[in-house]
Amino acid sequence: MIEIHKATTGDIPAIQQVARQTWPDTFKDILTEEQIAYMLNMMYSTASLAEQMEQKGHLFFLAQEEGRCLGFVSCETGYNNSAKTKIHKIYILPETQGRGVGKKLIRKSAEVAREKGDVILSLNVNKYNPAIGFYERIGFKKTAEEVISIGNGYVMDDFVMDWSFEGGSEI
Predict the structure, then answer these.
(1) CB 162: neighbour CB atoms within 10 A?
(2) Which parts of the sequence belong to the N-acetyltransferase domain (predicted)?
(3) Could you please report the per-residue DSSP string of the chain?
(4) CA gyration radius for the chain?
(5) Which of 88, 87, 86, 89 is nearest to 72 (CA)?
(6) Pair 168, 60: CB distance under 8 Å
(7) Which residues pair with 90 in a beta bridge?
(8) What is the pLDDT of residues 58-95, one digit of tens each?
């Protein structure tokens, strides 16, 4: 049975392991190996993850089954002083995709958002990431496009996708 629990800094190695196993497969046809390595180091170093958890207020949740981490999500409520919860990261091990893990993690983010009074879930996704279809199937809509400079001459070329609590829809 897949269980979702809140991560702590003690779970950073599990988050890093999922990222290392997921990113090369997810982005191999989208980003160069150099950009993947740069982004993994920038976003998933122990210091960066600890800062996200302890200083930036990002909440991380792990999906686990029989002690094995299958994936994670990170979200931030009240994003930019709005009634929006931003999903910063969501990655599921490639061999466990299609089992409902991603949906459970997004539902957990929605639960946290609802508890804080937020009315929108928002995320960025690379314009060429096949996960766009998954997000659309569960009710996310493209609302904007962003090109974000991340240093070292690299950018993230993304769609912004939002899901609203209005209308009583569920993920």
Answers:
(1) 16
(2) 2-166
(3) --EEEE--GGGHHHHHHHHHHHHHHHHTTTS-HHHHHHHHHHHHSHHHHHHHHHTS--EEEEEEETTEEEEEEEEETTGGGSSEEEEEEEEE-GGGTTSSHHHHHHHHHHHHHHHHT--EEEEEEETT-THHHHHHHTT-EEEEEEEEEEETTEEEEEEEEEEESGGG---
(4) 15
(5) 89
(6) no
(7) 73
(8) 999 999 999 999 999 999 999 999 999 999 999 999 99
